[in-house]
């Protein structure tokens, strides 16, 4: 199984997303977190599928999930998740 490392900031992003959505629908928030986990595994198994974001940082990649963008680095045997951000946010400044 491929490794998935989440930075402290990525974990905080996911918690913030879950908290926001769960205020209206905790089941939907739980489903989204499961979707993130499934996508993280897919990215860890196939790290090259995300679009390159070298203009921000050499080797950085991005992959969408609905309205969210997952920013990550391919690493040996997996990925390191850097941020999980809503696409409507000024994500370029948050990277």
Automatic annotation (TrEMBL):
UniProt keyword annotations, A-Z: Toxin-antitoxin system
Record bears the keyword GTP-binding: no
Cited InterPro entries: RelE/ParE_toxin, RelE/ParE_toxin_dom_sf, TA_system_RelE-like_toxin
Superkingdom to which the source organism belongs: Bacteria
Family from the record: Belongs to the RelE toxin family.
Protein name, entry field: Toxin ParE1
Lineage of producing organism: Bacteria, Pseudomonadati, Planctomycetota, Planctomycetia, Planctomycetales
Gene name for this UniProt entry: parE1
